[in-house]
Amino acid sequence: MEKIKLGPKLPRFVLPIVAMGANVGGKPNYCAVAWVTVIGNDPPMLGLVLGKGRKTMEGARENGTFSINLPGTTSAMALDYCGLVSGHERDKSEIFTSFYGTLGSAPMAEECPLSAECSLHKIVDFGNTEMIVGEVKESYVDENCIVDGNPDIKKLDPLIYAMLGGPYYSVGNKIADAYKIGKDFRKK
Amino acid sequence: MEKIKLGPKLPRFVLPIVAMGANVGGKPNYCAVAWVTVIGNDPPMLGLVLGKGRKTMEGARENGTFSINLPGTTSAMALDYCGLVSGHERDKSEIFTSFYGTLGSAPMAEECPLSAECSLHKIVDFGNTEMIVGEVKESYVDENCIVDGNPDIKKLDPLIYAMLGGPYYSVGNKIADAYKIGKDFRKK
What we know:
CATH architecture of chain A: Roll
Strand content of chain A: over 45%
Number of strands of chain A: 15
Structural class of chain A: mainly beta
Oligomer: homodimer
Shape of chain A: globular
């Protein structure tokens, strides 16, 4: 297959998109973040990368807590609104119905089937951007997304985002079991 | 909707899965990484989080270069093999057909429709894990994945991974345009 050079740019690939929540001056604020990953499993830690100056980050710094909310595809409109509008310009406290958990100060979005409340572990500076790393202190899932005792991807129906600029997609078909199908791989 | 507490654990969500490539002692090695995100757009930077002691990381440190290769769903078996087997125990140089680009020392996987070659920018220590941040110096895409001058998600057909433990999925249906559908959002 002929390879085409695209230049020094971000590849076109898909990422989950989440709503980060934090209280700012006692009021919930939510922003859309697609630059999200796992930092570790023990303890459970997640990292979100944001451009500097975001209002939700002010809230995370203020309280030392924040939340990560994984929307279903039915929340695409609300999520997109979170990304279009700055909390510096408009009150975003009522985009979602907020609830609070163990930490008391990290607002979570009831409309999202899965939420994790985090304590702020570290902020890593990358120049134009910064990564907030949080340790998951508790997680919450909609009762109807549980299958055989665990959250089910098809029930969660998560929203994913194509770099750069979209669109949003759903998760498609199961391709194979992980840590299993590779056992049949034979080198050429 | 009733919310169920799951405890302090990583949420069940989907992430892209990539093959990280690096030369170790002059020979290509590849490992599977799902903990991947964007660090910045200008310059284009990507971050991969790995448990410590991975052989591919040795190669990235040795050369100051590495690659990120985005497999299609047809490469699920090879990707899974990369994750099952350690480069410390077996030679993984022939899992993919390697090609080299501008940097000369970052092996890329011809079988993956999209590859980015990176120079090592920084390694961030997180205790059990470390994040390697690379600046994309050039990117390569299969000619038949280009639609209207840009890589097309449906042609790339990327493999995605469900935390924790799988399975692998394909990308599903388009849900909505980003930076657009949210314009119609009205607060309750």
